[in-house]
Amino acid sequence: MKALIALSAALLSGAANAADWPDTTLDWTLRAQAEARSANPDSALAPAATLLGAGRDCGTGEVRLRGRVGQIGFAGQAWAAGCDPGGVDRDGRVDELFWEGEAGPLHFTLGKKVVSWDVGFGFRPLDVVQRENRRALIDQQLEGVPVVMVEHFSSRVASTLVFANPGHSDEALRRDEQALAWRGFAQLPVADLHLLARWGAQERASLGAGFSSVPFDSLEVHGSSRWGQRATRLVGTWPAETPLATTTPWRDQVGGAFWQTLVGTQWTGENKISVLAEAWYDGTAPSESEWDAWRARNEAISGFAYAPAIARAGNLAWNAQALGQVNLHRTNLLLRAAYGGDTWQPEVDWLLTPADGGSVLSAALAWQGDRLRLEAGVRTYLGPSDAIYRQLPDRGNAYVIATLPF
Fold this sequence. Notes:
Blueprint: H1 2-13, E1 24-39, H2 49-52, E2 57-69, E3 72-84, E4 88-103, E5 106-113, E6 145-153, E7 157-164, E8 179-187, E9 192-200, E10 204-216, E11 219-228, E12 232-236, E13 250-254, E14 258-268, E15 273-282, H3 288-303, H4 309-319, E16 331-339, E17 344-353, E18 358-368, E19 373-382, E20 394-405
Antiparallel strand pairs: 1-2, 1-20, 2-3, 3-4, 4-5, 5-6, 6-7, 7-8, 8-9, 9-10, 10-11, 11-14, 12-13, 14-15, 15-16, 16-17, 17-18, 18-19, 19-20
Helix pairs in contact: 3-4
């Protein structure tokens, strides 16, 4: 927050002299957001609803900043957020702050920057630097990763070498892991080809490839696949002698090899209507036997009548950590339909998990004026009562967003 305020003050103090800065851009965006949630009384985690904040309605006001001064790029945000019941949280973040330069055919980037790769819509196996959650209901400004990056471009070939998180501990995991990643891109007559190689301090070697092709004017086909020597998985280790734990049983652990694969296609008509279908497999997601153990542990916690209610609720709240993963099942199917009009932009998508019959149904509608943009959306969880998505603390949620750029 202090860094963001200092950066903003420096920029504002020089705004009167902006004409002296030939390569300066500065964009501000105001954003107001309201979100309503309904608690899920059918979840095994329902006794922990208060601890988990289930069913709380929240509001957020944000100021977002993005710009460039010469070879320096930056982005940040400050916000005030409050939930009912609950207090108001005020904070801020520097999302990007980087230097870019060139030397002959090479392009250099040094600093904190968003680096998103791959071709998928709902999931991206080759997105090994940014690791963006593509299934979030409400879009948020992404936070970059510390990188040292070298790029080379030609008319049909590009190559990128990234050293992510320099200086981080060798024990850091997931987005914070120190890693070296290379991506190659080639524009071939029949398809765009993506190649990937990565070496991480913890996850070791990883190789991948992807493609995107347009066989007909209205039809696009894409896919990507990645193999990794090690995967970081969220693992629950419960005590054997009692149903209750005294500390959270969930830890990130680096385990064995894995595969991630996605295939998809999108049709777009002249009337601006598009239909997308994607299927993917994520070998780092929990297996069905792991979910069976999770359900059994919830039953054991709830049935331990000798323990105080607050102790049982606390253990159930810890078990909710397993539901925060990007993919809750290894096999997923996504269907999406949207209309890309100039003013009205409706869309609906349906994520299905064949393993247990659960699904996530989302719908959104955006209105775009000359500057003001209004958005509204809803999400609900469907399927059998024992499906994992039906065990989320919230049964569903809805939101309204107003965005005004300057």
